[in-house]
Amino acid sequence: MNGKIILISCLKANLIESSKFPNILFIILQLGGGLALFLFSIGRLSNTLKKVASVRLKSILQKTTGNPLKGALTGTAVTFMVQSSSVTVLLLLGLVNSGIMNLRQAIYVILGSEIDTTITAQIIAFKVKMIFYPLFMIASLSVFQLQAVLV
Fold first, then answer.
1. Percentage of residues in the chain having pLDDT higher than 90
2. How deeply is 100 buried, as exposed, middle or buried, from its count of CB atoms within 10 A (0-12, 13-18, 19+)?
3. Distance CA 101, CA 96 (A)
4. What is the pTM of this model?
5. Tally of domains within the chain
6. Which segment of 11-20, 61-70, 114-123 scores lowest on mean pLDDT?
7. Residue 110 domain-assigned?
């Protein structure tokens, strides 16, 4: 009787350990599929940007990311607007891959993106109730000023 219990418990332990293999294999397949989908979408983004990009877009990007300070400020502004440094980096990846920007310009923009992430975290850490309305007014004025420049 005691031997049967030991045999059954050994069989259960062996089944449990062997069931880990399909779980690990499934996780690896999911990671591989996600990576393949990510790389496919970056390739599609690059191809689309190559088709859509104009000389005007290239000149605008050259002006806004021409030197390190302008590149960092552009990265800060873009990340501030979209509130995601990951989106900024993925967009830059597509732009560099399609040849619209070079890697040096993208590095400065990524640096600015990370600076804005730090600034945003600091703003959240501080109590901004006192300066909310002045910040809102400055942001509104800058949006109107930007619209006047672009039009």
1. 15
2. buried
3. 5
4. 0.62
5. 1
6. 11-20
7. yes
Asked if residue 120 is part of any domain, the answer here is: yes
Structure tokens at 85: 């440094």
Report yes or no on 147 lying in a domain.
Answer: no
Q: How confident is the model at residue 7 (pLDDT cuts 50, 70, 90)?
A: very low
What DSSP line would sit under the chain, residue for residue? -HHHHHHHHHHHHHHHHHTHHHHHHHHHHHHHHHHHHHHHHHHHHHHHHHHH--HHHHHHHHHHSSSHHHHHHHHHHHHHHHS-HHHHHHHHHHHHHTTSS-HHHHHHHHHHHHHHHHHHHHHHHS--TTTHHHHHHHHHHHHHHHHHHH-
Mean pLDDT over 4-23 rounds to 55
Residue 108: domain span = 2-126
**Is residue 135 domain-resident?**
no
